[in-house]
Amino acid sequence: MTVTLNHDIIDSAPVPAATVVVLRDGIEGLEVLLVKRHSRSEVLGGAYVFPGGKLDEQDCQVMPSQLDHTPQELCRALGQDDLDTASACGLYVAALRETFEECNLLLHSMRSRASAQAASLRRQLGQGQGFLAGLQALGLMPLQTRHLVPWSRWISPPMPSMSKRRFDTRFFMALAPDGQQAQHDAREITETRWIKPADAIRAYWDKRMMLANVQLITLMELSRITSAPDVLAIGRRRRPPLIRPEPFDIDGQRVVCYPGDPSHSQKQSAWHGPTRMTFRNGRFEPEGGLQALLDA
């Protein structure tokens, strides 16, 4: 897998997006769901990511009566007081929609008939019906946003390292619903894979798995948490940190620093572990190498 760095300055505003880290407790501990983007994808082609995508206009058309929490409560949970309520609600809808579209998981439905409902919804979407309308037709309202726990917010810098597009992405944590099987869509996504966070980090280091820094750092955070309920409990207790990576080049090498790094404008760290990644050996590495990621 070859990583080609971007050196262009992107003038456009970051695109709002939502991503969901789906969790489960496996036999050997916490596992996360990673999906592999199609190699021809314009954004992170061939990389393993968490399910997600950009906020669509229709996502923001959800009515307050279609939600299990008020728009104001969702704004507060995202930790962004200046966010308009339509966008806040839309981000939750986008998180649920993208997870369903990319890996067939109907996160907000923990009912025994969820697999059959997911199949029906898939047929309706294939016939051109919108996500919200499809859920309404299946009697799956109100949306169970309570299953989504905001974790962090990442805003791409003007010079993104692994893309020519900028995103303003909210990361959510969610438990895998019982009785449903993750299945990739075979268009945008070519593989779904459950894996322990530390094993994903090792696969990245061995160049068996391409990860962007945001996925790598999130996996680093999760690698030291014992169980899926513990992850959700941590997320509910904290305000989602805002992460603005700050890249620069030193002697021809790309360096990306994060909050808490001496070169970053924000001096308080957002996590325990490396706050700087340098592109070398065809990948981004922290000082201290693999152990710095696993021992964080």
Walk me through the structure.
With 296 residues, the chain is an alpha+beta fold. Strands 1, 2, 3, 4, 5, 6, 7 and 8 form an 8-stranded mixed β-sheet that branches. It contains 8 helices and 12 strands. Helix content is 28%, strand content 23%. It has a single domain (15-239), classed as Nucleoside Triphosphate Pyrophosphohydrolase (Alpha-Beta Complex), CATH 3.90.79.10.
N-to-C order of helices and strands:
EEEEHHHHEEEHHHEEEEEH
Biggest sheet features: 8 strands, mixed
Overall spatial form: globular
- Radius of gyration (CA) equals 19 Å
Q: What's the level 1 CATH class?
A: Alpha Beta
CATH topology: Nucleoside Triphosphate Pyrophosphohydrolase
The CATH homologous superfamily:
Nucleoside Triphosphate Pyrophosphohydrolase
- The class by helix and strand makeup works out as alpha+beta
In what range is the share of β-strand residues?
Answer: 15-25%
Beta strand count? 12
Overall structural domain count: 1
- Low-confidence region ranges: none
By DSSP (H or I, 4+ residues per run), the number of helices equals 8
Average pLDDT number: 91
CA(first)-CA(last) distance = 26 Å
Helix content: 25-40%
CATH architecture: Alpha-Beta Complex
Summed up, what is this model?
With 296 residues, the chain is an alpha+beta fold.
Question: What tags apply to this protein structure?
Answer:
296 residues, alpha+beta, Nucleoside Triphosphate Pyrophosphohydrolase, 8-stranded mixed beta sheet, 4-stranded antiparallel beta sheet, 8 helices, 12 strands, 28% helix
What order do the helices and strands come in, and which of them pair?
Layout (H helix, E strand, L loop, with lengths): L14 E12 L2 E9 L10 E2 L2 E3 L16 H8 L6 H19 L10 H13 L4 H7 L11 E7 L11 E9 L13 E7 L1 H9 L7 H10 L5 H10 L4 E2 L2 E5 L2 E5 L18 E5 L2 E3 L3 H6 L2
